[in-house]
Amino acid sequence: MARTTNHPIPHSSRANPIEVDGTSFALNGKNISYRFHVDSAAGDLILNHFGGPVTEDPVAQIIPNGGGWSNQAHLRREFPDLGRGDFRTPAVHIKHAKGFALCDFKYQSHTVMKGKPALHNLPCTFGSSDEVATLIVHLWDSCSAVAADLSYSIFPNYDAIVRSVTITNKGRDTISVEKLASLSVDFPHDDYDMLQLQGEWTRECTRARRKVDYGLQGFGSSTGYSSHYHNPFLSLVSPSTTESQGDAWGFSLIYTGSFNIEVEKSPQGLTRVLVGMNPCQLSWPLNPGESLESPECVSVFSDSGIGNMSRKFHRLYRQNLIKSKFVYEPRPVLLNSWEGLYFDFDESTIYRLAQASANLGVKLFVLDDGWFGDKHPRINDKAGLGDWVVNPKRFPNGLKLLAENISRLEAANSKETLRFGLWVEPEMINRSSTLYEEHPEWVLHAGDYLRSETRQQLVLNAALPEVQEFIITSVASILENMPVTYIKWDNNRGIHESPTPANHHAYILGMYRIFEVLTSRFPDVLWEGCASGGGRYDAGILQYFPQVWTSDNTDALDRIYIQFGTSLVYPPSTMGAHVSAVPNDVTGRTTPIRFRAHVAMMGGSFGLELDPDALPEDDKAQIPDLIALAEKISPIIIRGDMWRLNLPEASNYPSALFISEDGNQAVLFAFQIRTTGVHNYPLLRLEGLDPSATYKLDGERTLSGATLMNGGIQYRFGSDYDSKVVLLEKI
Ligand code: GLA
């Protein structure tokens, strides 16, 4: 006989964010509903709906007894454990002292609260009692005396639900948590595509879309970090969903360590999504009385395409994840020394570069790798990491004095003096360093196994409190002793050897402690994350660092793909994007300086990464105007909404529109990749404008929002790599 599961929780736009009726729960966003209930017989949590707003549970016809071999296969389980006859991949796997690997979590009670409690040692979303409400469902496995608390926080304005799980051992024996997904959600029978961001060094965040098929498909990282390979983000979309139409669910894990995303279409047609830490690097021992918190996973839903899903993430992350005081601040235009000089510099070349930067109107000068190491000077990548003392040969008068002198230089066309920033890579160590001579035991290793190197470096074990203290003291002493206003925190290799699987997570917890201590102690410093470019571009890092170096690939054409891909989940305000010299060092491609600058302006932290004195005069002469334009539009990039109009994967004319928060200003970026002989230009139809408003374009012609969106606008392009940046103002 067919059973239905109908629960009478009403939904309205004014509905409470969390409504409970007995043991039925509804989370209500502006434009989403998430509903689940307790199955009274099994005590299991069963999902009724996750999608657009509904006023009651959808009518579900359920296969009697599941059919076939499984009595669970038909169930949309909120926290699937092992055993009970659910043969799909589980969200939780615990090894008990007696060797059992089963669980039998049953509903016990629940708590509803305004606001949202913070996790204890992991980054997490935050919000006032007006912004977010939380439901915690307490589950209990009486056979093993293990508790599981599922936390659901809803941010109604962003249609976002944040979930995490805490496992507590209330028994008398030590258990081991082998797997703990932050999020598990079972989708009803339907066809879906999965959209992910894959890549490598210099080609991060490349969009990849494929059909969800029967069986298990997924991706993750085992590098110890979130990685260039796959980003901890997944979107499930309907096959017909586009940027601006159709259903899109997004899942973003707030975690910087190795992760695991699984999508399983069961033989019965349901699709399960699991997002969490990588189980191969967990085996987390829990002694009696101890708890393990999972990272948070943020889910958003959009019924109007992938672009809207992205904008919900962007707004939520700016408002309720990034703690830095700079989150809504336009960032100073910077010049970074790396691509201009690499390791080849001394005091006078750095001062010359800083002077040249100031003369162009740059506001922040960043000295990258190579400034440190005394006994083992870092004059290449073979030595010095770990020795955070200034290289006395390169800086015979000390770096402090140089930094002070640089900080006195006046930036052209402004009253500002130059700020000074530094590169560090504090998690790493070269064998050739004083630190390694003194503390070889601080390096991540596994017994007698080889300590294998990448880029001639090893990783410090940040799980150790003494290593945490060393890193905190080293970085704090730089900041206390020099006028440094910006830090680029790099990380240039993955983790190979680890003493235990659990040490991977312990390392990340150690790093979070370090970030928390340093960023709270130095809130006026602008912190930028980096890991050979975007190897650690994740929501966990963003809690502490408001911006990340998006990629070591500064080729402007590749950057359109990388930046558009990154924007699927991360706000453009968080992207570091620089103009470098041509031919590009990574790709060998030559593009015009305007094109390079226009692409970089789509990132929140615009900069140069070149030696201005080595540029062709013509290019150099254009830089002050390009900087002025970047500064003019920066508030819109930092605080506004991004609309991806044409994707580079699909169009020779990639384009994006950024609209200010109040809708009064917008900036359009339009690019032509290749020139095409005797061929019409496309009509670019804008999105997100007010149809009834009139906009002035670049202070010249005026057009209505309706015309711009429904009719469009055509630009004439010239040669390859041509570009337009157009400012729109509502009048
Ligand atoms: C990494 C970074 C670069 C640069 C170098 C310095 O590759 O991504 O931007 O800082 O390290 O070694």
Task: Describe the 3D structure.
Residues 654-728 form the Glycosyl hydrolase family 36 C-terminal domain. Residues 44-287 form the Glycosyl hydrolase family 36 N-terminal domain. There is one protein chain. The protein is α+β, with helices and mostly antiparallel strands and 731 residues long. Among the domains are: 18-60 and 75-320, Beta-galactosidase, Chain A, domain 5; 659-730, Golgi alpha-mannosidase II (Immunoglobulin-like, Sandwich). Helices cover 19% and strands 29% of the residues. The protein is built from 12 helices and 38 strands. The strands form 7 sheets. Strands 6, 7, 8, 9, 11, 12, 14, 15, 19 and 20 form a 10-stranded antiparallel β-sheet that branches. Helix 6 packs parallel to helix 7 and helix 10 (593-600) packs parallel to helix 11 (617-639). The longest helix has 23 residues, at 617-639. The model is unreliable at 1-13 (pLDDT under 50). Bound molecules: alpha-D-galactopyranose. The site of alpha-D-galactopyranose has 11 residues, from loops.
